[in-house]
Amino acid sequence: MIDIVNVTKTYKDVKAVDQVDLKIQSGEIFGIIGYSGAGKSTLLRCLNLLERPTAGQIVINKKDLTALTKQEVRKERQKIGMIFQHFHLISSKKVYDNIAFSLKAAGKSKEEIQKRVPELLEMVGLTDRADHYPAQLSGGQKQRVGIARALANEPKVLLCDEATSALDPTTTASILQLLKKINETLGITIVLITHEMEVVRQICHRVAVMEKGRVIEVNDVYELFANP
Ligand code: ADP
Ligand code: ADP
C-alpha cells in the first residue's frame, strides 16, 4: 500500500534520509525506530507531503506522491491523518471545534460536521469533554483529541510522530491501545516513528531500524520478541 522507493532527502550537505526502500502493507502497524537524528521525522514528513524527497518515489495506493501538482497534494494530504508529540491543538478552540475545524477545512457541510464530531468524540472516549479547552485536558486526553482530528476525514493512513513521547507509561499504554483498536476496527494503516522499543513491542507488527538516514534492518516484531 505504501511503497517508498530509493528515497533520499538532502538538506544542503546533510543526507537526512539516504536511499530508503520500504514496503508497508495495507492494515499494518509499522514502526520506524532510531536515535535522534536518524532521519525518522524527515521520512515521515515526506510521507505526509510536508516535504518533497530530493530523489526517489513514494507511492501510496498506487498514486505517486512525488509527481503531484500543488492542488493534488492538498487533496492527497486529506487522505493522510497525522498526530504529533506535542498534540498541535488550537488552544483558543474547544475540543469540539478543534475536531470540526479539519472537517470544515475539507469542505464538509454543517450537517455532516454535526453528525461526525460526536462519533469521533465517542470513538476516542471524550464525549464529556467536548466543551473543554485543550488547557483543561490531561496529556492523554489532548492526544485523544489529536487522534479524533486526524481521523475526521476518514484517512486510509495514520502517521504518528512520537505520539506518546510526552506521556507517562500508563497513559502511553492507553493511547497505544486506542491506536490498536483503530487499526483493528477501521482497518487503517498506521506508520509510527519512535525512539522507544517498548512502543514497538506494544503495538507494531513490523519495525524498521534507521541509523544515519538509512534503514539498516526490518524485522517482524513478534519474532523479535519471541526469542529471548
Ligand atoms: P529524527 O527524526 O530521527 O530525530 P530528523 O529527520 O529530525 O531525525 O533529522 C535527520 C537529520 O537531518 C539530522 O541530522 C537533522 O539535523 C537534519 N535535518 C532535519 N531537518 C532539517 C532541516 N529542515 N534543515 C536542515 N537539516 C535538517
Ligand atoms: P508546526 O509549524 O508547529 O510544526 P504544523 O505546521 O505542523 O505546526 O501545524 C500547524 C497546525 O495545523 C497545527 O495546529 C496542527 O493542528 C494542524 N495540522 C498540521 N498538519 C496536520 C495534519 N496532518 N492533520 C491535522 N492537522 C494538522
TrEMBL record:
<dbReference type="GO" id="GO:0006865">
    <property type="term" value="P:amino acid transport"/>
</dbReference>
<keyword id="KW-0472">Membrane</keyword>
<keyword id="KW-0067">ATP-binding</keyword>
<keyword id="KW-0029">Amino-acid transport</keyword>
<dbReference type="GO" id="GO:0005524">
    <property type="term" value="F:ATP binding"/>
</dbReference>
<keyword id="KW-1003">Cell membrane</keyword>
<keyword id="KW-0813">Transport</keyword>
<keyword id="KW-0547">Nucleotide-binding</keyword>
<feature type="domain" description="ABC transporter">
    <location>
        <begin position="2"/>
        <end position="228"/>
    </location>
</feature>
<dbReference type="GO" id="GO:0016887">
    <property type="term" value="F:ATP hydrolysis activity"/>
</dbReference>
<keyword id="KW-1278">Translocase</keyword>
<protein>
    <submittedName>
        <fullName>Methionine ABC transporter ATP-binding protein</fullName>
    </submittedName>
</protein>
<dbReference type="GO" id="GO:0005886">
    <property type="term" value="C:plasma membrane"/>
</dbReference>
<comment type="similarity">
    <text>Belongs to the ABC transporter superfamily.</text>
</comment>
